[in-house]
Design brief:
Blueprint lengths: L5 H13 L9 H8 L3 H7 L3 H18 L8 H14 L1 H9 L4 H22 L8 H22 L7 H11 L2 H7 L1
Helix pairs in contact: 1-2, 1-4, 4-5, 4-7, 5-9, 7-8
Length: 182
């Protein structure tokens, strides 16, 4: 049996609070009181609640993307699972998008996380892969676009199913990146 780490427990506490309260109104004191930890424990794990949010998102993204290392799990499966994660956490994510220090900073942070993760995946995709400036630009454009689209979808601007969303992610992948993802 795997025990939860302090980070995981703090994230769960934060998410529980976010179900009934605006993210910008949640304090570190409330997070720790909700799970029985001290503020010192919180600050040993995270810089602030935004660091907690980024860590949680990164873990979820890596968990989904790491599955593409299995032969029977395709890039398409990764995109569908990503869309499912966004669907399953739609209320929580909408709270994050609407009630953080700014949607723009959230978009920038999530784009950087996705960008780093995609870069890592590409570098692991084959021998002697180097990411040149043009490929780097394609990665950034794709990550920025998918993060912005996801935020719009979570906030209700588009009303498509998760399967349709995954197809849009897939069809939006620039041609020069396809050789690494398929």
């Amino acid at each position: 049996m795997k025990r939860k780490t302090a980070k995981e427990i703090l994230v769960e506490s934060f998410q529980e609070l976010a179900k009934s309260k605006s993210v910008d109104k949640i304090t570190v004191q409330e997070i720790v009181a909700n799970c029985g930890y001290s503020t010192a424990t919180f600050y040993r794990q995270f810089k602030d609640k935004y660091d907690l949010i980024a860590w949680d998102y990164t873990c979820k993204l890596e968990e989904i993307m790491d599955q593409t290392n299995y032969a029977d799990y395709s890039w398409s499966d990764t995109l569908i699972d990503g869309a499912k994660y966004f669907q399953d956490n739609k209320e929580y994510l909408a709270n994050l998008f609407l009630h953080t220090t700014g949607l723009d900073s959230f978009l920038q942070n999530m784009t950087e996380i996705n960008d780093r993760r995609m870069r890592k995946y590409i570098l692991q995709s084959g021998e002697n892969v180097e990411i040149d400036e043009v490929t780097e630009m394609y990665i950034h454009m794709y990550c920025h676009g998918t993060v912005a689209l996801t935020c719009d979808w979570v906030l209700g601007k588009y009303n498509v199913s998760i399967e349709e969303l995954a197809v849009i992610y897939e069809n939006g992948l620039p041609e020069p990146l396809r050789k690494y993802m398929y």
